[in-house]
Amino acid sequence: MERPHNQYIRPLLTDLYQITMCYAYWKNGHHMDHAVFDAFFRKCPFKGEYTVFAGLSEVIEFLENFRFNQEEVNYIRTLIPHAESEFFDWLLSIDASQLKVYAIPEGTLVFPRINLLRIEGPLAIAQLCETTMLVLCNYASLITTNAARFRKAAGKDKVMLEFGLRRAQGPDGAMTASKYSYLGGFDSTSNALAGMIYGIPVSGTHAHSYIASYVDYSDFRDRLIDGQDILQLALDYRRESGFTTNDGELTAFASYAKAFPNAFLALVDTYDTLGSGIPNFLCVALALYKIGHKPVGIRLDSGDLAYLSIQARAMFKKTSEKFNVPFEDLKIVASNDINETVIHSLNDQKHQIDVFGVGTNLVTCQSQPALGMVYKLVEIREHPRIKLSNEKDKITIPCKKNAFRLFGESGEAICDVLMMSDEAEPQVGTRMLVRHPFDERKRMFVVPSKVEKLHKLIWDGRLVEKIPSLSEGRERLQMQIEAMRNDITRAINPTPYKISLSSNLYDYLQDLWNREVPIQEFR
Amino acid sequence: MERPHNQYIRPLLTDLYQITMCYAYWKNGHHMDHAVFDAFFRKCPFKGEYTVFAGLSEVIEFLENFRFNQEEVNYIRTLIPHAESEFFDWLLSIDASQLKVYAIPEGTLVFPRINLLRIEGPLAIAQLCETTMLVLCNYASLITTNAARFRKAAGKDKVMLEFGLRRAQGPDGAMTASKYSYLGGFDSTSNALAGMIYGIPVSGTHAHSYIASYVDYSDFRDRLIDGQDILQLALDYRRESGFTTNDGELTAFASYAKAFPNAFLALVDTYDTLGSGIPNFLCVALALYKIGHKPVGIRLDSGDLAYLSIQARAMFKKTSEKFNVPFEDLKIVASNDINETVIHSLNDQKHQIDVFGVGTNLVTCQSQPALGMVYKLVEIREHPRIKLSNEKDKITIPCKKNAFRLFGESGEAICDVLMMSDEAEPQVGTRMLVRHPFDERKRMFVVPSKVEKLHKLIWDGRLVEKIPSLSEGRERLQMQIEAMRNDITRAINPTPYKISLSSNLYDYLQDLWNREVPIQEFR
């Protein structure tokens, strides 16, 4: 299915001040001046040293639908009632046909200060893209990065399920979370609508309500699977095993197995995980196996997941031996308050979990719920521009810039370098001097063995580059993470990746700084 | 404008396991059994002791549009390919006409364990509401609570602006944030689309790009406001004051004043707040005032907001005195990384801020980005149900229940009490025994002076109760916060509000517990 156009992705989804600024540009005759803007961030999230860029397909959707309608313009008129009438005619006339957008491909590892998007075109129109592009890329990049970190923590052989729908910022927050968790390396989502719209695998079992809906045996009437009474068989196994368990739970499991004889996965913590849930699961699993169907496994949703998963595996093993059934490798799904730190701790405890279901901590990006991507003017009428501010962190790097990733002989990336767009590109085998943006003592020579130009022109009044599919981006990302030095991608105290400026750009930045900042006088 | 239907608010916006459970109910003939579900949360967010309930208008929207279409059912069929064909016919046939929904009004202060929604109807249909209702109420309630806390921290006389669009979880996250920040007590949003759709006031000034777009005086061509040269006048004031400031910034301010002579509010931290931004603002403000327009003020977006606001106020005062102009009360807007703790700290430092612009920390609810509202089966076929689990916190309170708020002689609320639906309601002037849900030693007598029944039947196959408007909910909330004891609503170490059970319900809970939980045996 084609994704329906998101009704909120439109140019009015912006901060009012973008529109008031446009009016001031227009009023002063600057609205069509040629401008260049950069979108970038200043710090990687989650105390990490890498970020994954994402959100590009929505940016394209935004550009393709960039038109104010009459109702919107009428509304804007009520907000700035003293503005001249011709301005509103102009607003009605604009679209994205005069814009150029350069972008780093989705699923690329990116680093602070490197411009992820470069937007060129008439000042007022490019200005109007600011807020919408940021809302489309900020969270998409953040959750993709978070998902990639969870995946890295759990390891390649684990199955990762996204369960965050109920904890996201409303429906669209949830849809975005599902889409970009998949990009980041998750295997599936529980969100059926996201599955339909984005073509992501969907998975899930049942919840506590299902168990609670069975009071006793009498609630399960037609008990036959392939002609055999699943409940009676399960009760026989319970007697044989000497378990004392909750009857409603046993009945619920048996009835669920009847509905899904080849996909029987039971939530085992409704009453008591070790005392009732797992024993009941095993009784029904044995019964089902006897009838001729292989059970799938259990889900743990509370308690000490390391301990319970180890105990569960031991019980599976014991059952395998006692009844001569292949239950040792039944799946153990765990899903209660899992975050990256918890996964590392579970690893240390040699957990027996096969599948992680992650909701809240994935979609809310709890340890850092926002990526601070910003959108800054870097050139106007061919004059490079800078934003200084009192905080060094908030300084922007001026000029229309290209970005390159330089690789060494080992095949690993050495650094990214920002260069003015009219500088000659870095050459394989040619030594170049690169400099830290703000620390004059930090500089180095690089002789690249490979040079990757990071930006592609994706929009030139219309879409001019095929945007990779979600699956392609997902593969690209896993390859990038594998190729990157592990000291940069590791979870604890990672090494910062080197971001540098060409010598020319560095000198230009220093010069502009000296020119633009008045020296304060103290008495 | 009528809010357009949110395209994602539909029954397929759910966890797949809700659908697989439905199939299992259907397969076992239980799908039409009468069920009662409660939606509630277990812990107030932000280390607080109150929460604001919100999200009801979207719940109604969901119920009104509760119908699967053919495309969705075809998609579901691909997810559970072995399910019987009649199930899909049944899915196509269902709607919300057999459901009853009882709800606490939006904007009410609510507390842990009290059911915010009670949903009654056919088991499978009520089950299918779980995830969607949770995604609609969880974040709405969380951000409303967060906004209310920010408002309380800043005080009633401050203006609060929501600026979070670019940091939300995509477009709908942002729209929800704007809507419910207003419910929580904010005055306006920067999000123009939210303004149009929800009728919320919108406000904003300009951003750094506007300042940076002016290189020097020559970029400002038509400098006349009411026939006078605003830039020349500003330059004259600058000479007279002896300021050395950035020329591009001064020019940008003057040009902005030309576009908005009666709404001139300048962002002053592009180059140097005290050394350039505020002096430039004052020069343009003096010029504008001379021409006959009152300037509005400044926005601080970086640096030490307490210090800078105090310095700015002092500069306003000095300018007022020197030039005999009414500049002492010009507005100071502050907007950099503000959160509840920062506001309390600014208060301690006697800041001079009039208006707070809050983005990231408001919309992401950074200190707790999810409210854990859950949806549990409490009665099936007239049998009360319980979910126990190993964690006491995860125990649900069984039975179809009503909730009451009991007020004392002082007019303040004493406690909320949950009662079985067939118990006699609490009576004014009549003593009743109420008990802590889990601690047998905690019990008390209450003689209420006023009794408020918390739930209203809002949906009985169709909407049967007028849902208050956003503004009505906003007023309701502010009245509720004022009426609540301050030790419960204060920011630091608040006192928990008392949540209790009627004596009957308490006994029933103990009894069910003993019946349902097997006693584990250790050897």
UniProtKB/TrEMBL annotation, chains A, B:
<dbReference type="GO" id="GO:0004516">
    <property type="term" value="F:nicotinate phosphoribosyltransferase activity"/>
</dbReference>
<comment type="pathway">
    <text>Cofactor biosynthesis; NAD(+) biosynthesis; nicotinate D-ribonucleotide from nicotinate: step 1/1.</text>
</comment>
<dbReference type="InterPro" id="IPR013785">
    <property type="entry name" value="Aldolase_TIM"/>
</dbReference>
<dbReference type="GO" id="GO:0005829">
    <property type="term" value="C:cytosol"/>
</dbReference>
<dbReference type="InterPro" id="IPR041619">
    <property type="entry name" value="NAPRTase_C"/>
</dbReference>
<dbReference type="Pfam" id="PF04095">
    <property type="entry name" value="NAPRTase"/>
</dbReference>
<dbReference type="InterPro" id="IPR007229">
    <property type="entry name" value="Nic_PRibTrfase-Fam"/>
</dbReference>
<keyword id="KW-0662">Pyridine nucleotide biosynthesis</keyword>
<feature type="domain" description="Nicotinate/nicotinamide phosphoribosyltransferase">
    <location>
        <begin position="161"/>
        <end position="394"/>
    </location>
</feature>
<dbReference type="InterPro" id="IPR040727">
    <property type="entry name" value="NAPRTase_N"/>
</dbReference>
<keyword id="KW-0808">Transferase</keyword>
<dbReference type="GO" id="GO:0034355">
    <property type="term" value="P:NAD+ biosynthetic process via the salvage pathway"/>
</dbReference>
<dbReference type="InterPro" id="IPR036068">
    <property type="entry name" value="Nicotinate_pribotase-like_C"/>
</dbReference>
<keyword id="KW-0436">Ligase</keyword>
<dbReference type="Pfam" id="PF17767">
    <property type="entry name" value="NAPRTase_N"/>
</dbReference>
<dbReference type="GO" id="GO:0016740">
    <property type="term" value="F:transferase activity"/>
</dbReference>
<protein>
    <recommendedName>
        <fullName>Nicotinate phosphoribosyltransferase</fullName>
        <ecNumber>6.3.4.21</ecNumber>
    </recommendedName>
</protein>
<comment type="function">
    <text>Catalyzes the first step in the biosynthesis of NAD from nicotinic acid, the ATP-dependent synthesis of beta-nicotinate D-ribonucleotide from nicotinate and 5-phospho-D-ribose 1-phosphate. Helps prevent cellular oxidative stress via its role in NAD biosynthesis.</text>
</comment>
<dbReference type="InterPro" id="IPR006405">
    <property type="entry name" value="Nic_PRibTrfase_pncB"/>
</dbReference>
<dbReference type="InterPro" id="IPR041525">
    <property type="entry name" value="N/Namide_PRibTrfase"/>
</dbReference>
<feature type="domain" description="Nicotinate phosphoribosyltransferase N-terminal">
    <location>
        <begin position="12"/>
        <end position="137"/>
    </location>
</feature>
<dbReference type="Pfam" id="PF17956">
    <property type="entry name" value="NAPRTase_C"/>
</dbReference>
<comment type="similarity">
    <text>Belongs to the NAPRTase family.</text>
</comment>
<keyword id="KW-0597">Phosphoprotein</keyword>
<feature type="domain" description="Nicotinate phosphoribosyltransferase C-terminal">
    <location>
        <begin position="400"/>
        <end position="507"/>
    </location>
</feature>
